[in-house]
Amino acid sequence: MKPTTKSKFYCGAAEAEFTPAPGLSLLGQMYERIATRKRDPLTANAVAYRQGRETVVLVAVDICIINDPFVRQTQQLFAKRTGLPAGKLLIHATHTHVAPTVFDLLTAKANRGFVARVQRAILDAAVRAVRNLAPVEVFSGTGQMDHMGWNRRAMFRDGSSRMYSDSKTPGFIGLEGPRDPALPVLFTRDAGGAIKVVVVNFATHPNCLEGERYYSADLPGEVRRQLKALLGPEVVVVYLTGAGGNVAPSILDPLEADQPWRGETGVRRSGLYLAGEAAKVIASATRPIKAPVLRVVQNKLQIPLRPWPKPGASNDPFPWIKERPDTLRYYEAAKAEWPERTAKRNPVPVLVNVIRIGDTAFCTNPAEFFVEHGLTIRKQSPARVTFVTELTDGYCGYVPTKKAFTRGGYETWPAPTSQLASVAGKQITTATGRMLRTAFHG
Description:
This protein has helices at residues 68-82, 112-131, 218-231, 263-284, 325-344, 371-380, 402-407, 424-441; strands spanning 10-17, 43-51, 54-61, 89-93, 134-135, 137-144, 150-151, 153-156, 161-163, 172-175, 182-189, 195-202, 236-241, 247-248, 294-303, 348-357, 360-364, 367-369, 385-389, 397-399.
């Protein structure tokens, strides 16, 4: 079935590489790592959608985290170059743990030249995506990922939970939470039937290679590589990391001694598995979305910070990190600056977005969002296909569940990487639900 050139829905896409020379520090661990080489390219991958007077651009960037000042500055530059409102550029960090940083965090230090390089790549891809807007038909569907992406928080009889502990650890009673097997896919075909852009979304930390000392886009890059090999090198693949704050490519219950989704072999297997499932969705989507109306609903929430926990509380980090010097220094510094943070940066502005494209919806937030919250959003969504995308338009840290706060563990320890009050999950999911209803029924 060939698309018609009379389509009133437009799409454009572009990509830009920003891989630096070796030698920069990598963000994603509590210890210092310096990149010695490039495994695969770091890229910014942009898609623009337009219908009538509405335009929105989404750029997925191979970075662990992008902070609010960088996002706002880049959005303003985008507005100057395109004439579009700054907020209509959404910037998503894919969350690779083997890329440099655009701001100082943990042991990673930002390099000015690299920061400028990333910003140029985002703007280049975003502006060209707008210029490339052309009539398309839009297709979407949801695949099923049964064998990858597992809850990474293990529960123990003493009432605690720990990241990456497993079924062979004494006192283990099971995993704390669920996983999300859904693989939403949206793609477009031009007037000649050619696929120009594919957007995929999966809820897991994309860190098959998280502790390495080289540059890599990790799982998102491998998915792009394999989809391009299948569909053509000109196809732009936009990978969006889903609600995977407590999900990873690790099988812990029962423990898999030889982790099939980790390391060099694991990342290739992971990319093939995810790209193959996305290809199944693409092949089976024979009918386009009938009325791909484009609506964008945006909201800025004000979410309070939580107080520093009392000694011995479930989310007190210090009983767990006495023997880890780098980690201890990080949390000592966090505790020392917590009064100032609470006084001057409280509440925290949290940007959430809903993009409706016909019967499909994108729901974004700037958190490391626990999978339970993502499942709640999908359950209340009126859309046939729902993307839930974290780490978009800034960074507000982990948003665990209330259950997780009662059991503790890394994601609940207060720091710049986990700062919001325990009500944050409910605030974001409730607001997103209202925005979905506005997008579809308002």
